Amino acid sequence: MPEVYSWQLGRTMHFPYEEHHPKRQFAFVFNINRCINCQTCTMACKSTWTFGQGQEHVWWNNVETKPFGGYPQHWDAKLLAMLEKANPGGQVWAHSSDTNKQAPFGRFDGKTIFEAAKSQHSPDGPKQALGYIPTPEEWESPNIYEEVTVGSPWKNKEFGGSVSLPEHKVWYFYLARLCNHCTYPACVAACTRQAVYKRPEDGVVLIDQSRCNGYQKCVDACPYKKAIYRPSTGTSEKCVACYPRLEGKDPLISPNGEPAETRCMTACVGKIRLQGLVEIDEDGTWKHDSTNPIYFLARERNVALPLYPQFGTEPNGFYIPPRWVPRGYLEQMFGPGVQSAIDQYCCPDRELLAVLQLFRTTQQIIFRFEIEQGPKVGEVEVTMPDGSSKTQELFNDTVRGFNSLDREVVRVTIEEPTVVRPSMHVNSI
Known about the structure:
By secondary structure, the chain is an alpha+beta fold. It has a single domain, classed as Alpha-Beta Plaits (2-Layer Sandwich). It contains eleven helices and 21 strands. Strand 20 and strand 21 form a beta hairpin.
């Protein structure tokens, strides 16, 4: 099996295919701290792509309540248990302070789903990726355990102590998910028909319906369970990243062919989502571009982290972790960069605060941002997760976002302006 390099693991790993990368990569950042579980993103995707016969159980985008929720049920807990069984006590990160851009989280010494599959065999031969096919019952409830908490606010009568930072004693959080359009997709690795592929122009992972025979190898292999079998057609389907919008085919949103964000991104009420396209060098690394907001958040600052990087697929979906959740739980989900990410988010510096304003401000994809410095408007004492205090200086900077044609599409200030309308009658708003 060939060797490929994963910057999220900090090492080379096994993958069925040689290194081959697109010119640009579809990627996104979700700020979990802002998600309100309104499911607007879910229904936007459902009404656009998965409303047909045989798709009743198909949710390309879903929002689940962690730690108990999941769609399909227990998708992550099951695979984590399988990896632990395949490599008892070995699924750990090496503690190292010697990190760089090609290994920002250190080194993962455990087994990926591709490496753990070496000892796994199915009736039709060895498996390319460790996985399983969910039962029909596990596909039944997309919002199971919604808003079910961990802990009890009544234990020892610790009423006030249950909701204090840095870690709540009673907690849950919302996790919005869609296909991560991974750099090393398990669905691509597992498909015996080679029906699953990555587009060379943007890295979007698609399933060729004319080649798919419905073997469900992709469903078995995808660790995030985002390839879903459709019984009415006998084929598997998955998120297509709204690729017509990426191609600038919408005449209203993209009059000049500018790439636009997906339906789930643009519908987000809580403004938790930011989508982009990042340039990829020939060796597969992200081309350095600190003015690209996705690169800035995921690679420059590492404030947005990959979901279960230890699976080995190098997902291109990134999350700003929630501040109130126990660190151990977050670290098994997002890796060892959690504390640094939360520290930065709790007290963002001038540049990071400006970039955070870009979430859900325009339907066109932002390829570049600029910050125009403004006057100082205040100071705030911030209590950091370790209990220390830090003074945050606030400046009313203006952040400008530019599309693929380098035309300005958004301009936002840090201090939101207040507009008072003249009173005309009693019930004026």
